[in-house]
Amino acid sequence: MKTEYISIFGHSHFLLPDLLPSLNRVVVLDDDLIVQKDLSSLWNLNMWGKVIGDAQFCEVRLRQFKAYTEEHNVDSNSCVWLSGLNVIELEKWRDLRITSQSRGGAALRLKLGGYC
After folding, report:
1. What distance in Å separates the CA atoms of residue 84 and residue 87, rounded to the nearest whole number?
2. Domains of the chain: total
3. Which pTM was predicted?
4. Strand (E) or helix (H) holding 52
């Protein structure tokens, strides 16, 4: 599995709740996406209590990232998500303190010499 695209930029979503404190929800699109229709359905998407809504990509499974996921309790048959399109519930993100938890994990990976 190629990992050259795993970088600090991959953690940029973790900054959104702090950068956009007055917003409760954002739709995040990569800069290489072409929008061809109205995206209001994404804005109105029922998130069923989830923090992030995304597009699944089932040609790649989490088991292919075993080196990165083996210490976590994940279903190895789960699909990965396409980070180029995300709906993020910022208010719930803040309530769960996800950014501060991520900062701790990123610092540990740097300390251990892993990617970040």
Report:
1. 10
2. 1
3. 0.67
4. strand 52-61
6: CB partners within 8 A, 6+ apart: 68, 115
Q: Contact at 8 Å (CB) between 15 and 94? A: no
Nearest to 75 by CA among 60, 63, 59: 63
Written in H, E and C, the secondary structure of 61-114 is EHHHHHHHHCCCCCCCCCEEEEEEEEEEEHHHHHHCCHHHHHHHHHHHHHHCCC
Supply the CATH number for residue 82's domain: 3.90.550.10
- Pair 87, 27: CB distance under 8 Å: yes
Mean pLDDT of residues grouped by 10 in the chain (116 residues)?
A: 56 84 92 89 90 82 76 78 85 89 55 41
Range of the domain at 107: 8-111
pLDDT in the model for residue 73: 76
Q: Do residues 16 and 90 lie in contact, with contact meaning Cβ atoms separated by under 8 Å?
A: yes
pLDDT for position 36: 94
